Amino acid sequence: MTEDLDARLARLQGSDDVYALIDLGCDLADVDRQVDAEWCFRRAADLGDSVASFNLGNALAAQKRFAEAVEAYEVALDAGEPDAWRNLGKVLEDLGDLAGAMRAYRGAVEA
To answer: Is the pTM of this model over 0.90?
Structure first.
């Protein structure tokens, strides 16, 4: 499977196929290749996909890059991805911002 993932990653270098990038990013994240998943999600997010921004936040959070994950989740929320509220709450909690986490969790309930 690693060879297949590596071949797909090589093929998508420079690609504008948002769906293929997100699909590969999810497959890479599933096998804990978060750095490669981050690249896929960041590329798709740069192309304007809000789901990719949400997934980018997940990949960054998995790498314990919580401040960057907050930024990605906020981009996803601004683009209308309500599922980002819960994950935003978790990373804010991990950063020790309990008041911010509570606001985010409230946003999740209200979404």
So the answer is: yes
- Percent of the chain at pLDDT > 70 equals 98
CA–CA separation, 101 and 95 (whole Å): 9
Q: What is the pLDDT of residues 4-42, one digit of tens each?
A: 999 999 999 989 999 999 999 999 999 999 999 999 999
Domain ranges of the chain: 2-110
3.30.420.270, 1.25.40.10, 1.50.10.10, 3.30.460.10: CATH of 2-110: 1.25.40.10
DSSP string covering 1-40: -HHHHHHHHHHTTT---HHHHHHHHHHHHHTT-HHHHHHH
Task: Collect all residues with Cβ–Cβ distance below 8 Å to 5 and sequence separation of at least 6.
Answer: 24, 27, 28, 31, 33, 36
